[in-house]
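User: Could you check the structure of this?
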Amino acid sequence: MPGGLLRCLMAALLTLGVLATSPPAAAHTSLTATEPAADSTVQTGPARVTATFNEELQPAFAAVTVVGPDGNLWSAGEPEVRGTTASVPVRPLGPSGRYTVNYRVTSADGHVVSGAWSFIVTVPSTGTPGPAVVEPASRGRIALWPFAVGATALGAAAVTWTARRRRSGEHR
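Assistant: Sure, the predicted structure tokens are below.
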């Protein structure tokens, strides 16, 4: 059997062996419960909102906010992370309507998890809101086309170089 073919066969068998014995990728942290429950209807606002996850969280860099139907911030204070939960105190709520809880937490393995859920308050109250929530200015997005063009050019250069090398007989 020619040496080149034997080397290719050995590399293929080694790769297959590594893939066959690799453990499956672990799933990332996910939201398992909320308080108040997602899409629930409550008569009065909660004193605190809580998100529970399936894995431990890092206490640093957590963000939990509550935005009311009036576009104002109704969460009060800093989020608190304990084990698998992240929570934040809530001001006495104001208008009736849909309140949205936004969260961004970091799991113990370093993955950032973000999302939102909402609940509806049916009875208006006289709470005082925090500041109005403003949409962040549109972030400058990095264009991907220069990377695609560069990768294509690099691939074409590699193919051209390989073809010229084979034609000139420089290969072993």
